[in-house]
Design brief:
five-stranded mixed β-sheet, 22% strand
């Protein structure tokens, strides 16, 4: 019996997207063409494979059973092809779509861009929002090449790499009438606070760290980005509790100063993840190395200054 191997990427796209429109866009084909391919798959396998539901498509039991085998086979084929390709960063031209959370975008991405400018001017980056979960980033389907932040419960088709750890410190007004070079637990709990609400697990991590120490905060205002903090702190006697590497960046503003947290709030991990299909992609592997180098340099620098 003859099989059309071109139908396998269609199956994978539908399995990961669970939506005909998104799967067609991902493959660069029209919806009718994708529907036609799906019908041929159904005829070959004598199974409906995907059942239409109100909010997408639900795979049948056969589709669920086939998905790991087909995904692994295509990944191995990708590895074979990309592994044979030469990669010269100085000559390469490619655009990578990355999904960093707001912390990584602020702390790591400027240094990554600087290194690309020195070593690979033809490599461009497109940064998209991390959102509230991995599915929104596009990394599970592979349309986004890498995602950065706290990677919780990743699916089997993602490779996760630890990049670095960071801790927490406090930011107050440079001329604060009560805070000099340190802040006590009593002062911290008596102050009003600026809270940052970045998406994802970073927010939960701070609340958990405060909870472990029994440290209370009276939040006066919540903002959506780290860059809003200096503007709030500069005109109030409020305090903000932020990652140390964020504090280092904000400390360039003469209106604010950084002081240690009143108690040890521990550390949190920063991770990078990518779809298994990119595991042996030479360009992808090179960019991962660059980002790992940057993370190591940045975290070592802040450790020396802590």
């Amino acid at each position: 019996m003859r099989y059309d191997l071109n139908l396998l990427p269609v199956f994978v796209a539908l399995m990961e997207e669970r939506n005909v429109t998104r799967a067609a866009e991902r493959l660069g084909i029209t919806q009718p063409a994708l529907s036609n391919a799906l019908n041929r798959l159904r005829e070959t396998l004598r199974d409906p494979l995907f059942i239409r539901e109100r909010y997408g498509m639900r795979p049948t039991q056969l589709a669920e059973e086939m998905a790991p085998m087909i995904g692994a086979a295509l990944a191995q084929f990708d590895d074979l092809i990309t592994g044979q390709q030469d990669f010269d960063p100085a000559k390469a031209t490619r655009c990578f779509t990355l999904a960093p959370n707001s912390y990584v975008e602020f702390v790591l991405m400027p240094s990554v861009v600087a290194r690309l400018r020195e070593r690979a001017k033809g490599i461009k980056l497109r940064l998209v929002p991390y959102g509230s979960d991995l599915a929104e980033t596009g990394v599970i389907s592979g349309t986004t090449e890498m995602v950065f932040g706290r990677i919780i419960d990743p699916p089997d088709n993602l490779v996760v790499q630890h990049l670095m750890d960071d801790g927490l410190a406090c930011v107050v007004r440079a001329g604060h009438p009560e805070i000099s070079d340190s802040i006590s637990r009593e002062q911290y709990e008596a102050m009003m606070h600026v809270n940052v609400l970045p998406p994802g697990r970073l927010r939960a991590g701070l609340f958990q760290a405060l909870g472990r120490q029994g440290l209370k905060r009276d939040v006066a205002v919540s903002v959506t980005h780290f860059l809003a903090v200096p503007e709030m702190i500069a005109v109030t006697d409020y305090c903000a509790t932020l990652p140390r590497l964020i504090c280092r960046g904000l400390a360039r503003d003469p209106r604010v100063k950084v002081v240690p947290a009143p108690v040890d709030l521990g550390t949190f991990p920063v991770e990078m993840a990518w779809h298994v299909r990119y595991r042996n992609d030479p360009a992808h592997r090179w960019l991962r190395t660059v980002i790992t180098e940057v993370a190591k340099t940045v975290s070592a620098d802040v450790a020396l200054k802590a």
